[in-house]
DNA sequence: TCTGGGGTCCTAGGACCC
DNA sequence: TCTGGGGTCCTAGGACCC
């Protein structure tokens, strides 16, 4: 029998699990990982969850409690997590014809057209999970079902049961799974929609699926609602976007069709001076430019954003943006930095304390294939400049992110840099660290 | 003192064009 | 009383995801 099936493999408490691979003394003990700038909790071990620590809680609020409960705290270390993620995907790709990397800790596998019996597929899921665990030290849960949305749902259920692999193979199994799932836990239904649905008496995914499709479309944003309804009924209608292997060390949404690249950061302490803000923005512009080159893209639009304290009451919007149009799409660090600094000068108001800044590149096209500017007959970049960027990326890749940078960017540990007081060493990627290990 | 960051898709409305 | 209609591009805003 041919089964039309997708699997969703999700790494358990991924950032915590990554830290534990290199600090095994924390297995079985409470651990949390903080967001950038040590702002809030973004990953918790099961033990920390039991203690009552919540996702997204501000660190400064729960810090005394964490210390009291002897919870181990890590600052986030995306270089490490990105590398571990790549290892997991590498293993997964041995088990399916297609892999779609959905986020840093999740991937869909394409099991369509597999000429197998259901019990074999269940065992196959268990094998691949075992193999990921042995090869990387990362624990996972696996959901297998006829649509991506149902695979997500099965994955959620797998987390709660003894066997971490859950397969939905019949109408009855799907129906039972829908009945066990609260409507707010369905993929694609966030807090707003969940509340709206509960007000209508829709409590579970089964309640939602039992409504007519037209009703669901009316309440859940039109076409999106329609797709969701059909996916819950076992009709696949989300696209399959197989991923190429990517070299990225951050959160990423892989695939060819990306529309923007951004880098924004909160400051360690508020900044007023144009000089310090320029350093920050130049540094962020360089980071976006690197990402652009890594993806083989060039950008037409540079958006700079400057943010004040989001949590302070006030009438003024907390974030303002300035858009700079480039006549020719580019991925050249100096050109993008110049544009970003121009945007910054437009935005900057003397005497205002800024808490965060960012650079967003959009209007993307494949590098080197852009239209030549007919009036100036300029190619996007002179060859020497291209070569310089290639060398720059290679050096920074090999010896660490800030080895070579423009003079406009900052020196080490500037005042605007975020806090990361509890970061683990870059076990897998840092050149100096590898050197010490020898 | 201290509250993350990077993405996606969809819709509505205005400007502009023929 | 009539004061077109359809297509496209852009932006802003709302919803969602991890």
UniProtKB/TrEMBL annotation:
One family name in Pfam for this protein: IMS_C
Top-rank taxon, per record: Bacteria
TM regions (residue ranges): none
Organism field: Hymenobacter aranciens
Family per similarity comment: Belongs to the DNA polymerase type-Y family.
Protein's recorded name: Y-family DNA polymerase
Record-annotated UmuC domain positions: 6-190
Keywords: DNA damage, DNA repair, SOS mutagenesis, SOS response
């Amino acid at each position: 029998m041919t089964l039309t099936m997708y699997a969703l493999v999700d790494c358990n408490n991924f950032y915590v699990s990554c830290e534990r691979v290199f600090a095994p003394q924390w297995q079985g003990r409470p651990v949390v990982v903080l967001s950038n700038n040590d702002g809030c909790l973004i990953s918790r071990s099961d033990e920390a969850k039991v203690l009552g620590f919540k996702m997204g809680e501000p660190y400064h609020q729960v810090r005394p409690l964490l210390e009291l409960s002897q919870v181990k705290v890590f600052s986030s270390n995306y270089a490490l997590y990105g590398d571990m993620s790549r290892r997991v995907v590498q293993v997964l790709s041995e088990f399916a014809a297609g892999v779609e990397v959905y986020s840093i800790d999740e991937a869909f596998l394409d099991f369509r057209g597999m000429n197998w019996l259901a019990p074999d597929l269940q065992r196959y899921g268990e094998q691949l999970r075992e193999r990921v665990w042995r090869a990387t030290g990362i624990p996972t849960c696996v959901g297998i079902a006829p649509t991506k949305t149902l695979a997500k749902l099965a994955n959620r259920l797998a987390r709660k049961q003894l066997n971490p692999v859950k397969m939905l193979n019949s109408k009855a199994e799907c129906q039972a799974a829908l009945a066990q799932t609260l409507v707010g836990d369905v993929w694609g239904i966030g807090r707003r929609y969940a509340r709206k649905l509960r007000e209508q008496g829709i409590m579970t995914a089964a309640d939602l699926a039992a409504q007519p499709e037209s009703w669901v479309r009316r309440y859940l944003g039109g076409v999106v609602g329609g797709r969701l309804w059909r996916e819950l009924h076992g009709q696949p209608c989300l696209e399959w976007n197989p991923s190429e292997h990517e070299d990225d060390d951050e959160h990423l949404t892989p695939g060819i069709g990306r529309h923007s690249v951004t880098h924004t950061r909160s400051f360690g302490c508020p900044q007023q001076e144009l000089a310090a803000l320029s350093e920050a923005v130049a540094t962020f512009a360089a980071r976006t430019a690197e990402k652009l080159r890594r993806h083989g893209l060039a950008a037409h639009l540079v958006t700079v954003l400057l943010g004040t304290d989001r949590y302070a009451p006030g009438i003024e919007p907390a974030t303002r943006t300035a858009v700079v149009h480039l006549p020719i799409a580019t991925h050249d660090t100096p050109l993008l930095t110049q544009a970003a600094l121009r945007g910054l000068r437009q935005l900057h108001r003397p005497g205002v304390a800024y808490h965060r800044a960012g650079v967003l590149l959009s209007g993307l096209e494949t590098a080197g294939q852009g239209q030549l500017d007919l009036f100036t007959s300029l190619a996007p970049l002179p060859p020497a400049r291209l070569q310089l960027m290639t060398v720059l990326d290679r050096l920074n890749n090999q010896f660490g992110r800030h080895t070579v940078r423009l003079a406009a960017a900052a020196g080490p540990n500037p005042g605007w840099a975020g806090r990361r007081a509890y970061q683990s060493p870059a076990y897998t990627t840092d050149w100096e660290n590898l050197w010490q290990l020898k």
